[in-house]
Amino acid sequence: MPTLTALIEHYNYVVTIFLMMAGLYIVVARGNMIKKLVGLSIFQTSVYLLYIEPGKIVGSTAPIIDPAFTVYSNPLPHVLILTAIVVGVATLALGLALVVRINEAYGTIEEDEIFDKDREA
Amino acid sequence: MNAVWPHLPALQVVIPLLGALLAALLRSGRLAFLLALAVSWIMPLIAGAMLWQVLSSGPISYHLGGWEPPWGIEYRVDLLSAFVLVLLSTVGAVIMPFAGRSVAFEVEEGRQAWFYCMYLICLTGLLGITITGDAFNAFVFLEISSLSTYVLIALGRDRRALLSAFQYLIMGTIGATFYVVGVGLLYLLTGSLNMVDIAARLGPTWTSDARAVVAALAFVTVGVSLKLALFPLHVWLPNAYAYAPSWVTAFLSATATKVAIYLLIRYFFSIFGVAIDLHALPMTEIIVALSLAAMFVASLIAVFETNLKRMLAFSSVAQIGYITLGIGLANQAGMTGGLVHVVNHALMKAALFLAVGGIFYRARSVLIDDLAGIGRKMPLTMAAFTIAGFGLVGTPGTVGFISKWYLAVGAFDKGWWILVVLIVASSLIALVYIGRVAEVAWLREPSPQLAQASDPPPSMLVPLIVLAAATVYFGIDTTWTAGIAGSAVSVLLGALR
Fold first, then answer.
1. How far off is chain A from B240, nearest CA to CA, in Å?
2. Does B370 touch chain A (CB under 8 A)?
3. Residue B441 included in any domain
4. SS3 A110
5. Within an 8 Å CB–CB cutoff, is residue A90 touching chain B?
6. Looking at the domain assignment, is residue B301 inside a domain?
7. pTM confidence score
8. Per the domain annotation, does B386 fall within a domain?
9. Which band of pLDDT confidence, cut at 50, 70 and 90, is reported for residue B1?
């Protein structure tokens, strides 16, 4: 049972890895480009959790110096992830813009239909 | 000058970034081109000055905003990064004049200023990855260069350009996310993001069964390998190269994958290799096997490809195999071969793709069947193409021979003589696909549709000829390529645990 206890103790990582795999699976398994982007977004978001979770120390407070507190959360992961969120938003926006253009050019956003159209042309 | 000198590392990244902003504000394609040209020509001066500084007085450490590392972001220029910076900026400067007419021909009028804006952002990102000493900062620059690359590819006229840009976006983002997961694991292990500091802190905690370290190594390797198109993670590359505007293909093939290779070398030899004993893991076997697969499978696909641009794209995947082969061998001669092939392949592929851009400018087609007899109509262009093509094969007297010679010596030093045979055999496949184009171009009667074709104007021809001449020059005088690569490699290997 030690594995099970370890899993329960680290349930936050289990959730993170589940989201990560779910996102990656959607990207691979779905042919619809919007769904692919949704999967990609879930995949990226799971990484935010991976960074932020260990930044929290049990019993800690926000990292603002105050004589009443001695234990603070690590602020660096939050700062890093703020940057990563910006990158994620930019990627999603560009991806969606490309999907709009693809829809204009091909009249569909299903990958297999697009491949068929290219083969005919 | 004295005021500028200490800030060269920051200027290397800041100038193209500001240039991108200006290019977007200019709105006129012609003005944006002139701006991009000016920025591209300043870059090699800065990179060259830093290389000179590194050669004379050792690595440069630049503290951004005056914050001491490991707390602040450090820009770190050592021999390897200076070498790659000089390569990136010089290739960018040489091929830039070609862009003027080529982009005006291939990209819609209203989008040309945005094109140069995206190019400058991409250049910023690529230079940034090479110069930074901070693992997370490298991720940010990786995404800056990637996002702008997707846009540059999507600017191609063919609708398949949009599709390949989208596919590259999916693959590239997965790669970058894998990389950032690896960096996250390293941060959890060490509490630091500074590359030198990570290596120093990782060392003492390491035991051969430290799974987190191996997981971090695996994530970074897979993530960066997606970016550098290591077989079998190369599927995004052929279409992206084939449907992007010609000049973009030349630029990307010479720089984008090369920077990813730099990042891989940095992680293998300056972080993981310093901290842990990589020989405890089957790294060499895995990388050599994948490299060999790339060299043979991608070359064979190239032989049967009918689109010249796609053929050269598959050839790129194969040539990246040679580079990673050198990294996998991880001995002095092998690594030197890999690193010098980074430069040599950049020169050859830039020349080949520029020649293809010139052909498209005049003949309006890049299908090999349409190009019968084009050598007689565009003799200088095709002569440059043929010289660079024979460089790919590894003919003595060209740069390709130098790379393959070092790789073969590296394989021999390791006692893997069969590898020497395979390197020669794969070069023969390159001879087949380059020979096929040469035969069509030179030995057939010109087809009627090429009646009007002639060599492109000087602004396109000169960069092409300079690159073709460089593939011969650096095939004879290797002081600046193999010489510096060799010293960079001995520094890297000397630091290994």
1. 14
2. no
3. yes
4. strand
5. yes
6. yes
7. 0.94
8. yes
9. low
